Description:
With 278 residues, the chain is α+β, with helices and mostly antiparallel strands. The protein has four helices and 16 strands. Strands 1, 2, 3, 4, 5, 6 and 7 form a seven-stranded mixed β-sheet that branches. Strands 11, 12, 13, 14, 15 and 16 form a six-stranded mixed β-sheet that branches. Strands 8-9-10 form a three-stranded antiparallel β-sheet, with no helix packed on it. Strand 11 (150-159) and strand 12 (162-167) form a beta hairpin.
Amino acid sequence: MTVPEFLPLVQAPEKKVIDYEYCFAFMGRDLLLICEEDSMRLPLKEDLELLDINIIGKQYLGEFNGYSCFSFELEDNSFEHETVSFHGIRKLRGILDDPIAALAARAVHIMEWDNKTQFCGACGTKTRQRSNERSKECPECGQLFFPKISPAIIVVIEKDDKILMARSPHFPEGIYGLIAGFVEPGESIEETVVREVYEEIGIFIKDIEYFGSQPWPYPDSLMIAFTAKYSHGEICVDNVEIEDAGWFTQDEMPSVPGTDSISGQLVHYYLSRQKEDN
């Protein structure tokens, strides 16, 4: 049996010697990294102590390859130091190894959940961390608070040798992506795919198949990806979430997200299939 690199735990195991810890220290949603010559790394516990930064929150995440992982919430101020730089979660790929960048996304999610659940939303009593699971409990009224995860779908739609690409008014200039949206109460995920496509671009789809998923901490989503085929209807954008959409062959593709996102993975999956067919 393969042992996972990361083991999520609620309480850190006792260790005789702690020779290294993964410290994910955030100011807002930006991760603190230590600059060393031509590279950057996560800070060690002693780095944070030497920098004398005010830590206002700490959360244990679990074990990565036998080493303990913690997230830290730093006081939000204009801290500057020549050995330190701050980087948004979206910019970590290429700076940190992929498993560490993925852990950073997990860390910021848990940090923000911890910050937002300090007090019970029902009666206002200070909550306490439960010892047997990632949750908090109100000692007064018994309410439980788990990390919020907002499921969302994203879908690539094929029509003959083309796929549908759409542009949100919030995208950087020239960038196109895929249809995506959040699951609503009472919906199955497949129903969400059909509804979002119709609401945003006015067409109907068929042959919906699961592709994969990706944690998406912006701020707390789980992106669930699908492939689908065009059924009928004419493109009619809603001019709210989508300002432009169209069918593109592999030779007509606009600028699309990179493969570090599941949106980019879906597009490149289509492109690789087109190359095989040709």
